[in-house]
Amino acid sequence: MYKDKVKFLKSLKYWSPMSQHISIDRAHQLNELISHAISQTSLASRQNVQYRVEQEQVYLTGIVSSYYEKQLAQESVSRIQGVRQVHNSLNVEPASRAALSVDLP
Question: Are strands 57-64 and 85-92 parallel, antiparallel or unpaired?
Answer without folding.
Answer: parallel
